[in-house]
Amino acid sequence: MTSNSNGEGDIRKRLREAIAHFHHILPSQPPLKDFVHHNTLHAYQHHRFPQALMEAQQLTGKVGYLPEAQYLELYHKGRITSKDLLEALNADPELGASSRIFTSDNQSILKRDIYLCGLLQTFKPVTGCQLNWYIEELSALERFQADVPERCRRKIIDSSSLGSEAEVVADLWSACLRSLGFEHYILHPEDLMDLSPDQAEAIISAFADSADVEDKQQFRVRRQMRLEAEVLLSRMLKRVGKEHTLRDVLKALTGEDVLDNIRPLLIRQLGNHLDEGVAAWHSSDQEQGFYASWRNNAVRDLAWVFDDFPGWHHILTSLPGNALDAIISELKHLGLPEPRWIGYLERLALQLPGWSGMFLWRHAHPGYKGLISRIDLLDYLAVFLILERLFARRLCRQIWNIAPDLDFLRWYFRTNKEEFLVRYALYNLRLPEYAVNRAHRLTSMVGEHVLNPEEWRYVAYMIWTWRHSPAADRPKGHSVYRSCWRLFRLAQHLGLHGGTIRALSLEQVETMLDCLDQLTPDKAGQLWLQAFENHYRDQLFNAVLHNHDRGRWKTRERRPQSQIVFCMDDREEGIRRHLEEHNPAI
Q1: For 418-437, how does the pLDDT look when each residue is reduced to its tens digit (9 = 90+)?
Q2: Model's pTM, two decimal places?
């Protein structure tokens, strides 16, 4: 008994200590009355800027760079130039931009040529469906791509021994396939629903080789499907508390986001509790804290929301009397291992970072402006967890008639692995239209009647066959859709004809593709931002340089010893006063 009490006390202590460190991950956001600087990367200032943005994105999901389309718009407006981009590329030692890849037709192709193309054009992989559409509807193997400049088209045709555009483009495609050792099968996705025995056997045999199966005679599609499902399910549930919450798991398996239901209810209550005198009505028990105030009114406030959901009234009336007990109870209901509790609360708070940050700031400043509301972040997290369980429970009951905890989800999908695979593929992978339609039909029928497991198995087989067929969009290695298509488009933008591509070694071709791969969203955003800042900097410096000895300061008797330009934030005033105290001539 004593040991259990000590363990309970220890987790309570660790939870309270963890809350005190939430300011490292949440924005420290006080109520705003006037414009004020706020550094959302304050917890990452010990890193270099690109690394800080990357780590903040991994934790919060927020991207620190402008969207690619916006940078391209700035480029077309002249606010970023090719010269700016080349300067940024040459200044990055990791890229090796000046390295030569090959020389052909008196033309040297450097890595920076590939990088520049990759920044200015889109070289994304395509699926088999998309490639078929490009070929059949846009004549992609007979015409240059629509975004290829005229000078590049002219250069390819003039340097090729072939005559017409159609011949030149078809030859370039053939060269790209040959350079990577591919034979191109133009398969409609629907053809994969009725593979011949030879085709199916070839796919299974190839997968067996890659899976290192010793006895291929015992290898069966269903066995491999179920193994994949087990691995995916285990990986998904292990990430809860580290990277995900229950909301993320349910969204990945149903396409439904319970936060859409939680957000309006929670924000309305938060706004009222944190109000500074604007609201016309306040709860009479605000002094008891957010959790107590919400708990006292929850049955009445949520009756219209959960009217069709049996059991909700009992859940609310049996809640613990204080927030910390409620948090522990909810995490136990979830079936989450105790070492992941703190991480789960962090992920939960980051789902509404602005409100979480505001509540945390008020938590750290009790008695702010003499307001009577008691603010404790534990109250906020307790209410958030309870609402998550309520809406998750309703969703899980509607679809599977199970409780929303990790153990039940694990049990259900271990028993129904084919359903898990279909749901995972539908909501997380890119599938051909015919597979999406069949999978969506199944998921939309649940709750209406009990589906035969064979229905899930049939669609799971179909998706599995697609994913391991020549027409699939595979995430690793070279493929017609990932590698050859990008090489085909890149060659056109570089002005390279089929003969040049054939003369390249596999290593040279892979180096070209590797340059495109290095332009990850983070790296591309960093380069675009650097180029944008360089352009603005050069404009400013040029203006200063060209206005030297001009203007009224030229005749001024006393000139300042130096001028200092600040970013407009809350550090400006303090630094300015400090410098003026030491030297009024600044």
Answers
A1: 999 999 999 998 887 778 88
A2: 0.76
